[in-house]
Write a structure and sequence with these properties.
With 415 residues, the protein is an alpha/beta fold. Helices cover 33% and strands 24% of the residues. Helix 8 runs parallel beside helix 9 (226-233) and helix 12 packs parallel to helix 13 (334-357).
Length: 415
């Protein structure tokens, strides 16, 4: 039996797409792994969201061929979409395709050349991953219409397109029936989900009786309104965790980023969420050192981290992406960007500690994910990572006992 490795860099959407390809290749008789090792075929699903991610993507071909210099290599994903000819020139890379229409990959395995396609407005339906774990990710949307000035993704994945709601509901219910205890709706910009007249709130109403916990992927602030909150509250089992993309706490910087909200509007969205879900976790991404960012503008970001009472903040240094408007702006010195990232990370760490400490001694619903070093790790509904001693095979009620640096210690709740 021929061996194949499907190796993934980048976002959760890439991981979901790779999981679908694992099933597709398995059905074609391959023995498939997702870890780099010896194989006859390598499918390398790349990323280009940052310069570092693109660099790792370029290095991936050589890493794979160390295990089998004679293997066939297919490269796909955002880095391949951005610079397909460079990948095609690499030794043993017979096939290059991009970030779109990955359902065609199984049909390209024996074809040499570069196969890039424009997104045609239709959602690319991939096979449902064969393996269902306690958390199951359902891709509901692809592409992006936002064109933030720092981001290359819309140029690579194309315009926003959504999966039919009937297909989403079918996969979600099938996953729950097969043992998934949490279903995560994911995509590049799920806030733009649209199936006819139905937006994300309508999709949540369609899933309101799903016999599994429902969690949402990254959201844009504009999606948060009374209708959205009501739809989420109306679900029988909803995880009140909202990854609400911020990027900067300065309205002036947000304008330069081509983000479509102000500082005040973002904080109002946070207030709406906390009013609807008092134990909500609002997590976010923030870029330090965007072109032209002044010290005063950066301090506005630091203060918003406290005002929004984030549960977690992912901190990034601005990375210029060739082909985006922000890359043409005057850049800040690397030392300034890194110093601001460190200050931001310290503020984020303090906020996480304050958020978790609010809930020590309280009861939560725990969905297990992995066993390691005598503990079962998983997440509460409000996205607190918890380690419970021993083996916890299924969803249980737990009590938070102690905060560690990266997670909490919990124990099984007994009445």
């Amino acid at each position: 039996m021929a061996k194949a490795v499907i190796f993934t860099l980048g976002c959760k959407v890439n991981e979901v797409e790779s999981a679908s390809l694992v099933r597709a290749l398995g059905e074609r008789g391959y023995e498939v792994s997702t870890a780099l090792g010896y194989a006859d075929l390598y499918i390398l699903n790349t990323c280009a969201v940052t310069a570092e991610a693109e660099k790792k993507s370029r290095q991936l071909v050589a890493r794979a061929l160390k295990f089998n210099p004679a293997a066939r290599v297919l490269v796909c994903g955002c880095a391949a979409q951005k610079n397909a000819r460079a990948f095609a020139a690499r030794e043993n890379v017979q096939t290059v395709t991009g970030a779109r229409n990955k359902s065609r990959i199984p049909f390209l395995l024996e074809r040499d050349g570069v196969f890039l396609e424009d997104a045609d407005g239709r959602f690319d339906e991939l096979p449902v991953p064969a393996a269902v774990r306690t958390r199951h990710f359902v891709k509901i949307q692809d592409g992006c219409n936002n064109f933030c000035s720092y981001c290359i993704v819309p140029y690579l994945r194309g315009r926003s397109r959504s999966r039919p709601s009937e297909s989403v509901v079918r996969e979600a219910y099938a996953a729950a029936e097969r043992g998934a205890e949490e279903v995560v709706l994911t995509g590049i910009d799920i806030s733009s989900y649209r199936d006819g007249d139905k937006g994300l709130a309508g999709l949540l109403r369609d899933l309101s009786s799903l016999p599994a916990r429902v969690r949402l992927g990254s959201l844009e602030a504009g999606i948060v309104d009374e209708e959205f909150c009501a739809a989420a509250r109306g679900m029988s089992d909803f995880a009140p965790h909202f990854h609400l993309s911020l990027q900067s706490g300065s309205t002036a910087v947000l304008r330069r980023m081509n983000r479509h909200y102000s500082r005040e509007e973002y904080l109002e969205k946070c207030r709406l969420l906390y009013a609807a879900f008092p134990r909500a976790a609002i997590t976010t991404d923030v870029i330090a050192g965007f072109p032209g960012e002044t010290e005063e503008e950066f301090l506005q970001t630091l203060s918003l981290v406290d005002e929004a009472a984030f549960a977690q903040v992912h901190c990034f240094v601005y990375s210029p992406r060739e082909g985006t408007p922000a890359a043409r702006l005057p850049q800040l010195p690397a030392a300034v960007k890194e110093e601001r990232r460190l200050r931001l990370a310290a503020a984020a760490s303090a906020r996480r500690a304050a958020y978790v400490d609010r809930f020590l001694g309280e009861k939560f619903s725990f969905v297990p994910e992995e066993e390691k070093d005598g503990y079962t790790f998983g997440y509460t509904e409000n996205y607190i990572r918890v380690a419970v001693p021993g083996r916890v095979p299924r969803r249980r009620e737990i009590v938070l006992k102690e905060r560690k640096e990266e997670y909490c210690i919990g124990e099984i709740y007994h009445e």
